[in-house]
Amino acid sequence: MESIRGKAWKFGDHVDTDQIMPAERLTSDNIDRLADFVFEKARPGFVRIVQRGDILVAGRNFGCGSSREHAPRALRQAGVACVIAESFARIFFRNSINVGLLPIECNVEAEEGDILSIHPEEGTIVNERTGQRFQFSRYPKFIKELIEAGGLMAKVKERGRCTRSQ
User: Fold this and answer.
1) Digit-coded pLDDT (tens) for 87-110
2) Which of 23, 66, 85, 133 shows the greatest Cβ crowding within 10 Å of its Cβ?
3) CATH of domain 4-159
4) Domain-by-domain residue ranges, the chain?
5) What's the predicted TM-score (pTM) here?
């Protein structure tokens, strides 16, 4: 898994999926442009300032709320490379892996705008402004492969196992 270097965007505790992706935007017409609505109500204009490779840094229980995978999918479409949180709602954590968005459970000290370097193979995060290093649990090989492939369905298609039985 490659290292990630990006700008930190700070969020608090209990950021729910409706804050990330408003439920009324979940129509079939919007599925390919979910990024247009990321944090539309909770942080208006976010989609215009977030850059490909940026990193969300949050508190406890990130992604609580619904079990829909639209929230992590929208973050990935917006270019977010990784979400670091003290803790995640379990279904959001799993949905993130399923869509190829890297979730890291770690308590990281960072200010908005800090540049973070994430080294998944080492299990480390470095805040380049402060020089602080943070340790997190590394992922097993099969999870790394899912994320690198772009998620579960991409991995299944890559392996050619998605065939119809007769």
Assistant:
1) 999 999 999 999 999 999 999 999
2) 85
3) 3.20.19.10
4) 4-159
5) 0.90
